[in-house]
């Protein structure tokens, strides 16, 4: 009789806890679907993302929209791709250009000494100092 009560208790507790299907329960509560087996990979990607963001102080990712928030691993991977792509573009161009955040194309500002005066391009002013005004 005692065993049958224990079995009934076990059956009640196992049936009342929903099966998470191998998903991490803590992240699932927050709306992210990450398999427990993928947690090591996600953690590694998050560490890489933290290192890359900390090195360059990149702020443009705050404007990035990720359309599937339940895919945490894919989101982190897309962030890493954006950061790595930006780092590759920074080293590919000479130091006279600054890369700005954009969509798929790169926007550059050229700090050459050519300045447009009263709508007449070609007016050149040579500045000896390192400070130049940036047109807004």
Description of the molecule:
The chain is elongated, with a radius of gyration of 27 Å. It is built from 4 helices and 2 strands. Helix 3 runs parallel beside helix 4. Helix content is 43%, strand content 6%. The chain starts with a helix and ends in a 26-residue tail after the last strand. The protein is mainly α.
Write the layout of secondary structure elements.
Elements lengths: L1 H15 L8 H5 L9 H18 L15 H21 L4 E4 L6 E4 L26
Antiparallel strand pairs: 1-2
Low-confidence stretches: 13-17, 94-120, 123-129
Q: Indicate the CATH topology.
A: Arc Repressor Mutant, subunit A
CATH architecture: Orthogonal Bundle
How widely separated are the two ends? 83 Å
Structural class: mainly alpha
Residue fraction in strands: 5-15%
CATH homologous superfamily heading = Transcriptional regulator DELLA, N-terminal domain
Major β-sheet annotation: 2 strands, antiparallel
Number of domains: 1
Radius of gyration: 27 Å
Key terms for this structure?
about 140 residues, mainly alpha, Arc Repressor Mutant, subunit A, two-stranded antiparallel ribbon, about 5% strand, elongated
